[in-house]
Amino acid sequence: QEIHYFPETDSTNIRAKELGEKGASHGALAVADRQSAGRGRRGRGWESPPGCSIYMSILLRPSFLPSSAPMLTLVMAYSTAEALQECTGQEIRIKWPNDIVLNQKKLVGILTEMSSEIDYINHVVIGVGINVNMDSFSEEIAKTATSLRIETGQVMKRSTLIAEIMKHFERNYDTFLQSGDLSGIREDYNRLLVNCGKEVRILGAKEPYQALALGINDSGELLVRKQDGSEEAVYAGEVSVR
Ligand code: BTN
User: Fold this and answer.
1) Does the annotation list 40 as a binding residue?
2) Are strands 3-9 and 29-35 parallel, antiparallel or unpaired?
């Protein structure tokens, strides 16, 4: 695996995209110690101080259709959760579709970006930000964010975690390719899902509504049971769950 390390960069997602445009091979990884313009989902930023966190983005060159790409984010979320759980022994959980939480606070964020035509993927970049050794956050996110160090009191070696996550991702990616969907990891993903069996509020639909989360289906949609007993699959791109 090709690894590109940057002591400082604007965003590893931008670096990985650039690697993609320059012809870097499938699996190339951009890692930084610090980001000056870390990007989060929905146009938000990602706090990226030096010396304590993991900022990494993997470049993938899949041959499947662009419509399958969103499932890769769940493959990465599951792989990261599995690896962190193994390395720390903590109850690491996934908050659908792709946040990772520990003790109800956010530990990992994932941002997937794709360059594609209608029927062809040029490349996919999956960026992962993991709060490892930071001991505090800005006031803005202090109530909702946490780090492995804050929760366990332990300082972890970042390179060990990265290697472990890559190992899990490689295996789960292969499983994903075999079926082209999440059927091979669905049950294990659902076991780590913090929303499972809980009431969730579905936002973004015409009328926001309350429902019981049942777990993901093979496409990564969240199955929910509405109050009238009917079941529905909600799609991550269209709704957000609170
Ligand atoms: C989120 O909003 O939850 C997603 C955050 C993703 C942050 C990571 S850090 C490495 C990569 N580079 C970025 O600029 N963003 C992602």
Assistant:
1) yes
2) parallel
Strand 199-203 to 3-9 pairing: unpaired
Find the residues whose C-beta lies inside 6 A of ligand 1. Answer: 11-13, 35, 38-41, 44, 46, 55-57, 99, 109-111, 127-129
Please state, in angstroms and rounded to a whole number, the distance separating the CA atoms of residues 64 and 61.
Answer: 9
Smallest CA-to-CA distance from 93 within 174, 195, 216, 217 is with: 195
pLDDT tens digits, one per residue of 136-159: 999 999 999 999 999 999 999 999
Instruction: Note the ipTM here.
Output: 0.99
84-99 per-position pLDDT tens digit: 999 999 999 999 988 9
Q: How many residues does the chain have?
A: 242
- Say whether 1 counts as a known binding-site residue: no
Nearest atom, ligand 1, residue 106 CA: 3
Q: What is the CATH number of domain 3-191?
A: 3.30.930.10
User: Could you give the CA distance from residue 239 to residue 95 in angstroms, rounded to a whole number?
Assistant: 14
Backbone angles phi and psi of 75, in degrees to 5: -65, -40
User: Could you tell me the CA-to-CA distances from 219 to 17, 184, 201, 233 in Å, in that order?
Assistant: 25, 11, 21, 10
CATH number for 199-241 (one of 3.30.70.20, 3.30.420.140, 2.60.40.1190, 2.30.30.100): it is: 2.30.30.100
Please give the pLDDT value at position 206: 76
Residue 224 belongs to what H/E stretch?
strand 222-226
- Does pTM surpass 0.80? yes
DSSP, res 25:
P
How many whole angstroms from 154 Cα to the centroid of ligand 1? 23
